[in-house]
Amino acid sequence: MSITSASERVWFITGSSSGLGLDITRHVLSKGDIAVATLRKPEVLDELVAEYPKERLLVLKVDVTVHQDILDAFKKTKEVFGRIDVVVSNAGTGLLSEVEGTPDDVARALFDVNFWGSVHVLQEAVRFLRDENAPGKGGRVFQITSGMELVGFPGCGFYSATKHAIGGLAQSLAKEVDPAWNIKLTIIALGAFGTNAVNAMAKLPVHPAYVNPDLVVAKWRKAMIQSQSGVFDPTLTIKGDAAKAAGAIYRLSEVDAPPLRIPLGCVDLARGATKDFSDEVEKWASWSEGLDKDEYQN
């Protein structure tokens, strides 16, 4: 086991191969903390491994759709560093496809990564922080979701569904844990940041019923893809800097009383969604009047 000082926090990060996960890994290391970077292809981080000693960076092969991979990674982290201070459940993938045009097997595979993979990380994170860390030490857990958890986007129905699902489960989990365990869970709804996520997402052919270019979903597809070749340059329309988002998440890990949910880089989207829902609640509130059993009517 490596000897770690109390000032060095141990971060366990899933989806560290690229994008936000990689930026969080880099930021953690730049701050003098320890990173356990998990990803499907460890060789992707060979250059980063060459920069840092094994006492600072541990790279582990984890496919979040394989439950045993997750359990083994937490176990290995315990063996090497003795504890975990922060868990970032970040691994995920995208899908561009109309709801009607998405085969069941494709949708289920998406849920296997974005929902069930995250579920198993969260379950083991809570168990580890409670049972493996020193009694009462606890730790931080960040579940990364998306602005599409807050608002369903056309062409991204199943992706939005995975984010709705894991966001809802994480909220329930946060309310289940015993405060004495000192485990603080925050759900981060991430906005649009300049990563390779759009290039990496699966893109299914347009369903024949949705080829009309005037449809909202067709316009959204065009905005996502940018060209007939399917090459997307996120620097053209996306202003968010993923490295800065990683810095914000690091600072959030130092907040004594962190929020349960926070929109990061999608505040306007969150405000709009909240207002739209609030307006509809008030507009249609009267429809709930008189629905109680007769004996409970005033």
Distance between the termini: 67 Å
User: Numbering strands along the chain, what is their spatial order in the largest sheet?
Assistant: 3-2-1-4-6-7-9
Rg over CA atoms, rounded to whole Å, is: 21 Å
Q: How much β-strand is present in the residues?
A: 5-15%
Write out the CATH superfamily name.
NAD(P)-binding Rossmann-like Domain
- Low-pLDDT parts are none
Quick one: biggest sheet?
A: 7 strands, parallel
Q: Categorize the overall geometry.
A: globular
The helix/strand class is alpha/beta
Provide the CATH architecture. 3-Layer(aba) Sandwich
CATH class wording = Alpha Beta
CATH topology: Rossmann fold
Helix content: 40-55%
Overall tally of structural domains: 1
pLDDT average, as an integer?
91
Order of helices and strands: EHEHEHEEHEHEHEHHEH
What's the helix count?
A: 9
Task: Find the count of extended strands (DSSP E, 2+ residues).
Answer: 9
List the helices and strands and how they pair.
Elements: E1 10-14, H1 19-30, E2 34-39, H2 46-51, E3 57-61, H3 67-81, E4 86-89, E5 95-96, H4 104-131, E6 139-144, H5 157-176, E7 183-190, H6 197-200, E8 202-203, H7 216-225, H8 242-252, E9 261-264, H9 267-283
Parallel strand pairs: 1-2, 1-4, 2-3, 4-6, 5-8, 6-7, 7-9
